[in-house]
Every structure is written in structure tokens, then in C-alpha cells.
UniProtKB/TrEMBL annotation:
<keyword id="KW-0694">RNA-binding</keyword>
<dbReference type="InterPro" id="IPR008532">
    <property type="entry name" value="NFACT_RNA-bd"/>
</dbReference>
<keyword id="KW-0820">tRNA-binding</keyword>
<comment type="similarity">
    <text>Belongs to the NEMF family.</text>
</comment>
<comment type="function">
    <text>Key component of the ribosome quality control system (RQC), a ribosome-associated complex that mediates the extraction of incompletely synthesized nascent chains from stalled ribosomes and their subsequent degradation. RqcH recruits Ala-charged tRNA, and with RqcP directs the elongation of stalled nascent chains on 50S ribosomal subunits, leading to non-templated C-terminal alanine extensions (Ala tail). The Ala tail promotes nascent chain degradation. May add between 1 and at least 8 Ala residues. Binds to stalled 50S ribosomal subunits.</text>
</comment>
<dbReference type="Pfam" id="PF05670">
    <property type="entry name" value="NFACT-R_1"/>
</dbReference>
<feature type="domain" description="NFACT RNA-binding">
    <location>
        <begin position="434"/>
        <end position="530"/>
    </location>
</feature>
<protein>
    <recommendedName>
        <fullName>Rqc2 homolog RqcH</fullName>
    </recommendedName>
</protein>
<keyword id="KW-0648">Protein biosynthesis</keyword>
<comment type="subunit">
    <text>Associates with stalled 50S ribosomal subunits. Binds to RqcP.</text>
</comment>
<keyword id="KW-0699">rRNA-binding</keyword>
<dbReference type="InterPro" id="IPR051608">
    <property type="entry name" value="RQC_Subunit_NEMF"/>
</dbReference>
<dbReference type="InterPro" id="IPR043682">
    <property type="entry name" value="RqcH_bacterial"/>
</dbReference>
<dbReference type="Pfam" id="PF05833">
    <property type="entry name" value="NFACT_N"/>
</dbReference>
Length: 551
């Protein structure tokens, strides 16, 4: 389901219940399109996420951690100037549209109270966040500035008058009368007639035509759930139970927890892509060149198969030298190894002896090239495997682990170290710790350098090592010499979760004692070889990972 007007209605109610009357304690803009307001309400701090992301635009309370960028954006500086310590007077929705308005009152340096409205417009790629002065009706600042050439309908720059988006001539379903719900012949009719109705919502409403008003009342007392569409099996999020069009619902305590869980991986991957776009582009170029090089090397290696033919031609020409007439373009001779006739091309400008030596020279050249080709093939293949593992790790690591991957690439020489790096230095701990249900400590590497340190330096020889089979993923160390079966299963689930197979089922995970692992000389970070391993099939389990991490 999309974050439509109906979902917005329920979310605004949830925000009013939790945040109205609170005070803005902190303002952050961790990413280009996202704003975090830390609001002190009901004796606790809560994070309000306002997103103008083109795909994930939304408003919600979030429990996900965020780091402040070293250099604050212009928009967040404007917000800090005007609404730091502001009181949240309330949230309201514009009719049933996807526009959420937060009413704020704040004191300036002289102690005078001013009123502001912080507006989030959820409109796909046109989504935006505005700070409006209620006294003047003008835009103080906005998260996405748009020049007049790209938007002729309304001004989208500071000091422009704030103008609402084009109004749709539709009915608000929450204020509609009984007669408004008549003569509806399709889900499309519902979307055409009523404001703020998404496709999934209209499909469910059409299945409940006889009790539409009762269905709409459910939005006042939500039953948040994630469920799969019966039509296409896609996972969606819903503020109330869509019993006619979805299946396998999983309930959540509130709408914000539902969105946190639904967007956890989607938003995480997108944020990582924002931070590493230039790096992944560079690695992809190197990877493309390496794969092209491997094709050429394999082609050269295939050509060496005719090496023995050149040696034979040289032998035969030397043996039957007297039969060769100078100036001949070819000659047919008997191969005395199998008594078959062999036709050999000749250079008419060469003497018979020079033709024989020419074939011997080709033979020696190919023979000498084989070790170099094989060496280059091994080096290039190892680099491909390494780069693919790094790119894969960006799909499953957490946002706070990106710095470690960047440091790894700097150490490996793939990217240059910036002279000034405003990022906060992380504590130099290796890996992330977990605890099995039965109390055995586990450590998970979050990049290849950490994987090497954990496995080859920090782990004891009798500890157990786990890794997904033949797929990029983290090294997991189970700190026990004789772990119980349940702990092995849980450690394998951790290994599967922190791998490219995170979204798969029945993931094969190898496990073996560290004493059976070694690292070849000159191998890339994270690459090891091992023997005597056993393999177990497990399903990655996010809830279990969270539980064991807390332990």
C-alpha cells in the first residue's frame, strides 16, 4: 500500500496523541530528503521523521538511529534558527490529501512568540517540506528549492507566498454522506469520486461496498499490519485489516512501528546508495574492466591449445626438410606419431629451415605465456570476487557500518583518502556482538578487514567460524569449543542475515572450527580457505537477530 490520504488520516491521529504539546529539542537533516525532529513529549524524547523522498515520502515517529552530518544543510540551519525549542500545537491533515501540517509556536531572541507551520507534502517525486510563517504566509525555507522555470504554478523558493498544490474536486470520505457512497460500480469509481484513495485502498473498499462507512470508521481505531496482496503477493502496509484483498497479516503496536519495519531495508539501502554512489560507480567500472579482462585471458588460454600443433609442425618440417621446395605455400607430410597426413602452411618467402624455426618460435611463445596468463587470470578473478563481495555488503550492512567499508577500500587502494573527513570517528571495535539464547557470545564482521581480524587474529583456534556457502557475507565467530545445536543454528541464522542471501529461505551456511581455516598469501581481505566444514540450512530471521543483539 502507498502512504495515501487514508493512511495519512490515521497517522495524523497517532502523531497528535503522542507529540502534541511537546517541545522540539533537536533538529537534524541526516539525508538530503529527510528531516528528524527530536520532540520532548510525555517525559521522553521521540524522533519525528519527515521524509520528502521521491519513493519513500512519509511522516512517522521512528526509533531508528541517525547520525548528524558534519556540515548541516541550509534548510536545517533555517529550522534551527526559527523553531528550536518550539512547542508543537498540533498536527492536521488538509482534507484527505497527503499534506500534513504541524502547527508550532516559538519565541525569538527577544522573547516574542511567533507562529509557524511546518508542512510536509507527500507527492512522490514532487514531495517537499516547507517552513511557513503564519504571520506573513511566506515560505521561510524548504527542503527542495525549485526555480520558476521548472514550476510555473507556484513559487518554491524562500520568501515566495506559500500556495497549496492544485486542488482536486473530490469528496473527503471522512465527511461524506450516505448518498455519496451510492452508484459506485468499480474501484476506479471510488478513486475518481473520493479524495486521497490509493489503489489498494479502493480495491478493499470496493469489496466492502455494503459497509463502506463502517470500513472508514476503522481508520479512527487502527489495526496496523503488514500483509501480502492476494492479487500479486506483494508486501504492503495497512492501517486497518484489509480482509478481502490481503493475506497473512502481521500486526504491529502502532503505525510508526509498522513503517519502521516496512521501510527498514528499503530506506537503509537507499541511504547507503546516497552516501556511496561515487564509490560504487568507481568499483562497477573496475569490475566491468576485470570481467572483460577475464574473457580475453580465457580466450588467450584457449589459443594455447594449438601450441602442441606448432611444435609438431616444427618437428615434421625439420625431419622432412629435403622434401620442402623453397617458395611453397604449403606442404602435406605424414605425421609419424599416428601415420595421418598433415597439411602445414608455409611462408613462401622463408627457407625450409626458417619455416620450421617459425613454428618452434610460436610454440615457445605460447608455452612461455601460459604461466603469465594463469597468474593474471587468478589475480583478476580474485579481484572480481572481492569487489563483488564489497558491493554485496552494501546491500546488507547498516548505515553506521559504511565508514568501515570506505576505510577498507582506502586501505586496499581502490579510493583515495580525503584530506578532511568531517565524519565522526567511530570507536575502534572489531565486529558486532551478539549472544545466543544459551549464553554463548558471537561476533559478526561488518566488512572484509573486520572479517580478517576476527577470523585470523582474534578468534581462538577452537572457536567456531560460520559463513554462508558460496555467497558474499559476514564472518561469524561463535566463541565456544563445543557449542550446542541450538547455538549453531542461531549463529547460522545470524550469518545468513548478514549476507546477500538475507531475503532468501533455506540458506546453506558452512561452519567449522577456526583451526581449519587459513588465508592464502596475498589474498584479498576477507578471503579464506577451509576444509572439514559441515553445512546447515537456515532461514534468516530479523526478529531473532534483534533479540540476540539485545542480549
Amino acid at each position: 500500500m502507498s502512504f495515501d490520504g487514508m493512511f495519512t488520516h490515521s497517522m495524523v491521529n497517532e502523531l497528535n496523541q503522542n507529540l502534541t504539546g511537546g517541545r522540539i529539542a533537536k533538529i537534524q537533516q541526516p539525508f538530503a530528503n529527510e528531516l528528524i525532529l527530536t520532540i520532548r513529549s510525555n517525559r521522553k524524547n521521540q524522533q519525528l521523521l519527515l521524509s520528502a523522498h521521491p519513493s519513500y515520502a512519509r511522516v512517522q515517529i521512528t526509533k531508528q538511529p541517525f547520525e548528524n552530518p558534519a556540515k548541516p544543510a541550509t534548510f536545517v540551519m533555517s529550522l534551527r534558527k526559527y523553531i528550536t525549542s518550539a512547542i508543537v500545537q498540533g498536527f492536521h491533515q488538509l482534507n484527505n490529501d497527503r499534506i500534513v501540517m504541524i502547527e508550532l509556536s516559538a519565541k525569538n531572541e527577544l522573547g516574542d512568540i511567533h507562529e509557524y507551520t511546518l508542512i510536509t507534502e507527500i507527492m512522490s517525486r514532487h514531495s517537499n517540506i516547507f517552513l511557513i510563517s503564519k504571520e506573513t504566509g511566506k515560505i521561510i525555507d524548504l527542503i527542495k528549492r525549485v526555480s520558476p522555470e521548472n514550476n510555473s504554478f507556484r513559487g518554491l523558493l524562500p520568501n515566495d507566498d506559500y500556495k497549496l498544490p492544485p486542488k482536486q474536486d473530490k469528496i473527503n470520505p471522512f465527511t461524506a454522506s450516505q448518498s455519496d457512497f451510492s452508484n459506485l460500480e468499480s474501484a476506479g469509481d471510488i478513486r475518481q469520486k473520493f479524495e486521497g484513495i490509493g489503489i489498494d485502498t479502493s480495491d478493499e473498499m470496493f469489496e466492502n461496498l455494503d459497509s463502506l462507512q463502517e470500513f472508514i470508521k476503522n481508520y479512527e481505531n487502527p489495526n496496523p499490519n503488514a500483509a501480502r496482496s492476494i492479487k500479486n503477493n506483494k508486501l504492503g502496509f495497512f492501517p486497518t485489516l484489509f480482509s478481502k484483498t490481503t493475506k497473512d497479516p502481521v500486526s504491529y503496536e502502532n503505525l510508526s512501528d509498522l513503517l519502521d519495519n516496512y521501510y527498514l531495508d528499503r530506506a537503509r539501502v537507499d541511504r547507503i546508495e546516497q552516501q556511496t554512489k561515487s564509490i560504487t560507480h568507481r568499483l562497477s567500472i573496475i569490475l566491468k574492466k576485470d570481467k572483460s579482462k577475464v574473457k580475453k585471458l580465457n580466450k588467450q588460454l584457449k589459443q594455447t591449445k594449438i601450441m602442441d600443433e606448432y611444435n609438431l609442425y616444427g618437428e615434421l618440417l625439420t625431419t622432412y626438410m629435403s622434401k620442402i621446395e623453397r617458395g611453397s605455400k604449403s606442404i602435406t607430410l605424414t605425421n609419424y606419431y599416428n601415420n595421418e597426413e598433415v597439411k602445414i602452411k608455409l611462408n613462401p618467402e622463408y627457407s625450409p629451415s626458417d619455416n620450421a624455426q617459425s613454428y618452434y618460435k610460436k610454440y615457445r611463445k605460447l608455452q612461455n605465456s601460459i604461466p603469465h596468463i594463469k597468474e593474471q587470470l587468478e589475480i583478476t578473478t580474485n579481484e572480481i570476487n572481492y569487489l563483488e563481495s564489497v558491493l554485496a555488503s552494501l546491500e546488507y550492512v547498516d548505515i553506521e557500518d559504511v565508514d568501515g567499508i570506505i576505510e577498507e577500500l582506502i586501505e586496499s587502494g581502490y579510493i583515495k583518502k580525503k584530506r578532511k573527513n568531517g565524519r565522526k570517528k567511530r570507536k575502534k571495535t572489531v565486529g558486532e556482538k551478539f549472544m545466543t539464547t544459551n549464553g554463548i557470545e558471537m561476533v559478526v564482521g561488518k566488512n572484509n578487514i573486520e572479517n580478517d581480524k576476527l577470523t585470523m587474529k582474534l578468534a581462538q583456534k577452537n572457536h567456531y567460524w560460520l559463513h554462508v556457502k558460496d555467497i558474499p557475507g559476514s564472518h561469524v565467530i561463535l566463541k565456544d569449543s563445543d557449542p550446542d545445536e541450538n547455538s549453531i543454528v542461531e549463529a547460522a541464522q545470524i550469518a545468513a542475515y548478514y549476507s546477500k542471501a538475507r531475503d532468501s529461505n533455506k540458506v546453506p551456511v558452512d561452519y567449522v572450527q577456526v583451526r581449519n581455516i587459513r588465508k592464502p598469501n596475498g589474498a584479498k581481505p576477507g578471503f579464506v580457505i577451509f576444509e572439514g566444514q559441515k553445512t546447515i540450512l537456515v532461514d534468516p530471521d530479523r526478529k531473532l537477530v534483534g533479540k540476540l543483539k539485545e542480549g
